[in-house]
Specification:
The protein is an alpha+beta fold. The protein has two domains: 70 residues, Luciferase, domain 3; 139 residues, ANL, C-terminal domain (GMP Synthetase, Chain A, domain 3), CATH 3.30.300. The chain is built from five helices and nine strands, in the order ββαββββαββαβαα. Strand 3 and strand 4 form a beta hairpin. Helix 2 packs across helix 3. The N and C termini lie far apart (59 Å).
Length: 219
């Protein structure tokens, strides 16, 4: 807890969650240093931060409150993959992956699926001394399922040497998603290394072609 900040974790209906249950982080009363508006766009400020849970400030983050009253941030609530009716946070997948001793960084995004609506794929950077091999990829698939649950079945894992990041080292999941869907990547003025986009595209296309060849061979 933070002195002077009346924070809480709530469910979809705005009801308080029990300790260790994931929910939406809200702040119920004004606090020192709170944002008061968006420059020249006060209506947007109201719509973005005060509409989802009327009377509470909501910035769009998942969190849990532990048994000691401390809050743990779980990532953006809008970065969610809907798998057969289940809501799966990209943060959950990425956190599970980077807990594996072979993984340094990870980015999870959704791809369309005819049956489930969406399914997750992940792009992974391995730690120094680790190499891509079928056994490791199979192990990572099982690792995520055991830690997140059966719904967290990654459709594919792509091993890459770099990921698109901002200059402040934040992974640009939006760019990764656009590459996978074959869409324009949009504004990349904050992108640190343009070659990282091509690295993601290369890994995705190579595996896609490999799967296509295998499918033709089994037909």
């Amino acid at each position: 807890a933070i002195p002077g900040v009346d924070a809480d974790v709530v469910d979809d209906q705005g009801q308080q969650q029990k300790p260790l249950e994931r929910g939406y982080l809200v702040i119920k009363n004004p606090w020192p240093g709170m944002p008061l508006t968006i420059h020249k766009d006060p209506e947007r400020y109201k719509d973005v931060y005060w509409t989802r849970f009327p009377g509470s400030f909501y910035a769009g983050d998942y969190a849990v409150r532990d048994n000691d009253g401390y809050f743990w941030m779980l990532g953006r609530a809008d970065e969610v993959i809907k798998v057969a009716g289940h809501r799966l946070g990209t943060y959950e997948l990425e956190s599970a992956l980077i807990q594996h001793p072979a993984v340094a960084e990870a980015a999870a995004v959704a791809v369309p699926d005819e049956v489930k609506g969406e399914v997750p794929v992940a792009f992974v950077i391995l730690r120094a001394g680790q190499t891509s091999r079928p056994e490791l990829e199979k192990e990572l698939h099982q690792w995520v399922r055991e830690r997140v649950g059966p719904v967290a079945s990654l459709k594919q894992i792509f091993i890459v040497s770099k990921l698109p990041k901002t200059r402040s080292a934040k992974i640009m999941r939006r760019v990764v998603h656009a590459v996978v869907l074959g869409q324009p990547i949009g504004d990349v003025t904050t992108l640190e290394d343009e070659a990282s986009v091509e690295e993601v595209r290369r890994a995705y296309m190579e595996l896609k072609q490999e799967i296509g060849v295998q499918s033709q061979g089994s037909a």
